[in-house]
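Thought: the user wants the 3D structure for the chain below. I'll pass the sequence to the structure tool as-is, report back what it returns, then summarize two notable features.
Action: structure_tool
Action Input:
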Amino acid sequence: MTAEPVGLAGLRVFRSFIPPKKFTEPFFLGVNMTRLCFVSMVLGCLFHSFTLSAASVNAQDAVFSGPQVGEQLPRFSVRAVFDDAGKDLDFIELANGRPIVLVFVHDVNRMSISMTRILTQYTVGRADSGLATGVIFLNSDVTEAENTLQRIRHAMAPGAPTGISIDGAEGPGNYGLNRKVMLTILVGKGGQVTANHALIQPSLQVDLPKILESIVAVAGGPVPKLSDLEGMPEMKGQQPGGRSAVEMRPLLAPLIRRDATPEEVDRAAKICEAAADRDIAVRQELGRIAKTIVDAGKLSNYGTPRAQEYLSKWAKSVETRSGLRPAVEGDVGAGKPTEDSP
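Observation:
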């Protein structure tokens, strides 16, 4: 599509405010056409500036890591651990065009390892149907990565082909991986990417269903229910008042990281509050946890000063019994309040 000249864009904006017949009046004729052209150029610049700014905001909201859908899956080597320890492996070559799931682990923590384990237990279980798996740990120190993997081997999926990138923490240079995400999960077939999942804060409930759908799209079969996956945390049933039990660790872990930047804390807090807005059980549990930390005098043990500000705010919301916002009809998990409700 050809870009519209700035002057024409300004004229279009200008004319949108002036009835067509007005352009035949003397004010818009003769020497005043110079003024009209000048105003059109100014409005055109403002219009294009606004358009570019909006596009820039949208681009900043998107998170990219690795080759995108439709692009090639370049070959790369990893140093194998566990069963094939010491060997150099090429997961793309081994797949030989078959459907493949590649899990790049940028950051080793409970959330990333839990997602990796549960996902790859499913993919390894489908090896007989032609689905290939490759788990790649990214670290600037191969020896350190090997020691870490040996220590957490019990938390990994048995039989999942696993290796350490020989290209350091950045991973294969032609993959363009993003170090700011925890996991980059690529699904491919025929040497091309069919799905790309760049996860800053992996969530089993939110992200895993989307990943499974993208796998089934190329490997076939039904999309499994989360409750049917091996290793999936069991639901704890219902709390009093009809409120669903919630797992808060994935929400709070990014917030209380000691090395989190203020921007990362703000982003994590925004996710927590959005979840609390959607689900009264999350709202009440978030307030309860924050109040417990503050009342115990342990606030300084949790995260950065910025994170502690959020915890203090949420604790106060419980003290005033206001919640993060009032519960309304239609909230997920909303039920009749109980005596012990925050």
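Final Answer: Structure generated. Residues 32-61 form the longest helix (30 residues). The beta strands are 78-80, 88-89, 100-105, 132-137, 162-165, 183-189, 192-199, 238-239, 243-244.
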